[in-house]
Design goal:
The chain has 247 residues and is α+β, with helices and mostly antiparallel strands. The protein contains four helices and 14 strands. It comes from Marinobacterium aestuariivivens.
Length: 247
Amino acid sequence: MGLPYAQDAAISRHLAAFLSRQHGAADDLLGQAGSDFIKPTRVLFNGGVLKAPLLAGRTMAIINGWLTTAGADEAALLTGLDLDLAVARGSAYYGSVRQGQGVRIRGGIASAYYVGIESAMPAIPGMEPPVEALCVAPFGMEEGSEAEVPGREFGLVVGEPVRFRFFGSTTRRDDEAGTLLDFWEPDELEELPEIQATLPVEDRRPGEVVPVRLASRVTEVGTLRLEAIPREGGQRWQVELDVREGQ
């Protein structure tokens, strides 16, 4: 998320945008308060494509060029890794940790996630109703943990096709579950591919609007599970978003 190089191969532009957009993320850690971009001190490559000296060298030259211009020390490249096996070894180690062996590094999800909610503003004929963004998973929420959206109830249509619009933000790090945004800057939230679903009717009528409250869970396999819990009845409705791939 934030590095769409598969659709647009301008790697350097995406890196520059990412480091600039996250400039406030490491103020306390790196002592770079007031900086216009994060100034990395170490670079860790991952993936076999970066075994190519031309790609690795050019990437380092660009990053260090930015740092030199900003009056900062050049970043050092971390070496000694087998880039072809790095991901596989990480996966194997994670499996061992799940079995109680090794040390688990807790970091949580790297974005806050929001679901689109139709605004309560009066409808205007011929125009879609305005959308507000409701935070359902705050930044840093850990795998296996749950969050309930407090104090709010929503209407959920069952038995008919409905669209779920999701948004992600790597910059809004203080929003809690239940924070409702009626306005945001263009670079604060990134809209993700929507999910279309027909939720089962159970013992209700198709098209019925069911009062529900929302809860979310980040699963161990990297999905965000959004759960709608009705005011009455024991059934629950779920949709899942892949928070590792942003889909």
